Amino acid sequence: MANTSDLISGVAERYASSLFDLAQEAGSIESVQADLDRFQAMIDDSADLKRLILSPVFSADDQFKAISAIVEKAGLAGLVGNFLKVVARNRRLFAVPGIVRSYRETAARHRGEVSAEVTSAHALSDQQQAELKAALKGVTGKEVAINVTVDPSILGGLIVKVGSRQIDTSLRTKLSSLKLALKEVG
User: Fold this and answer.
1) CA-CA distance, 38 to 161, in Å (whole number)?
2) How does pLDDT run across 19-71, given as a tens digit for each residue?
3) FRET partner for 25 with CA separation of 20 to 30 A, picked from 2, 38, 80, 173?
4) What pTM was estimated for this model as a whole?
5) Neighbours of 143 (CB within 10 A)
């Protein structure tokens, strides 16, 4: 039996690929990414929107009506607005975060960049982001597009994922390692 996250990932990649193809034809790859990023920020900032997207208890019609109203109110017209309505109509809203992530990766590859997912305990300044991009460019040899997520639970440091590699310098992980080491000693 297939893993649920693999199924969601597959759905997300197919939808993101289709959206990317449409955006490429329309010459609007960057504006579509900006609209998707805005919508993802709305999801991150609203527990109600997150519940609408992830909960299976809402009917396709309810999801479609809600997404249509949100898209209109947020001014997400055109390709992204229509795309989100199709996703809602097809009962695939649960895959939207994966679609956004997959679209970012596809757009970055198209630009000759690699995509990095960065988790930080606090928001990074523009200078910190520039320094991180430069350091990652030195490691990967390519331009790096970073997507920063703030997660105060990591306490400090960063978690950086580039492709299949992950670098975890978070304080939470270091404390967990220390706790484990102390248990082994005592």
Assistant:
1) 22
2) 999 999 999 999 999 999 999 999 988 999 999 998 889 998 999 999 999 99
3) 38
4) 0.73
5) 13
